[in-house]
């Protein structure tokens, strides 16, 4: 008589999704009421639903968020299956790692300079190239049963580099045409919120479209290509243009003087690089860390939890940084870095209870949802928008070097364990907290900033 061994399948409770939705909705809906007293003291301040005297701002914000949501949806459709898509095309584990490493290497060698090129030629063209790259990848996957995995990885990496600065630079440049500076904070957190919701939507759309992976045409690549084409048309129609006064020579001189020559910008760039490294390693390692104890886990059910937590974290921004904020606190960003670092530290200790891991990962994602728009706000304070793209792409270069090193040593040669990589990600977050603390002390000594929010 044979023995049947039942495997334990772990999945989150349904109430957890409802809890995330409830807290996110409450954070958005209750903020105007709790900030009413603060708004009385600051008649010119704004909240997430108060746009003040900028009559045309709601239309601009809606148009931009629609475009940014489309771009996020396209990115999500391009990477929704992760390693499973590479395995479907017959790639081995080592080949998958080398493809990821090739993408990071291209981001390092080419993507580092894309921000500077975007500053000179205009963010409109950078956004168009982002859409064209996804259009190419979607077309190749749709018409070819076995597309070049290396080529798609390189294209997606370049598109990710472009997205890290192009849309933000465009949005801030439009704000500088006459909108109130304090409204930027609202748009920053709404960008993070809409990006996370679009990534969840990409998972839903992908699960709906893909019924049989052996049928190559009706895969997420087809709607991704169509959405990329729609975005190109949308950009061409809605964008009014971007005026430039920089020549290459003048831009180089200004960049050396106002970015490379400013220690505050260096500190901010280091914090951005540490964050990028930690987030990248999290998305690489969360799945193998979760199933490390041998239990079967519905990983597709955890992905929305992480993104929902990120959405929840982004809704905390107006509570701390809006002009009508009842809990305004400049130390909140430092605390968010520390909390995120502590979460990864516990994971690095090789804790393997799935429920606790889910909680720690959700707290980490909530912290990143708070940190990302907070850093965008600091970039507006210290970095001239004419050099914003160059600063962002240059700040990611050290993190790309570290990512490439750990991908090869940990993923390909297996000389470094996953727990060690996770510990390095935690150290990076603690280092970023130190950078923000140093920046705050420097701000007290030199209160002059490029902008005032």
From TrEMBL:
The keyword Membrane applies. The chain crosses the membrane at residues 15-34, 64-82, 94-114, 149-167, 188-210, 216-235, 265-286, 301-321, 333-351, 357-378, 390-408, 420-439. InterPro entries: MFS_trans_sf (IPR036259), MOT2/MFSD5 (IPR008509). Keywords: Membrane, Transmembrane, Transmembrane helix. One of its GO terms (cellular component) is membrane. Coiled coil: none annotated. GO terms for molecular function: molybdate ion transmembrane transporter activity. The keyword Transit peptide does not apply. This is Major facilitator protein. It comes from Zostera marina (Eelgrass).
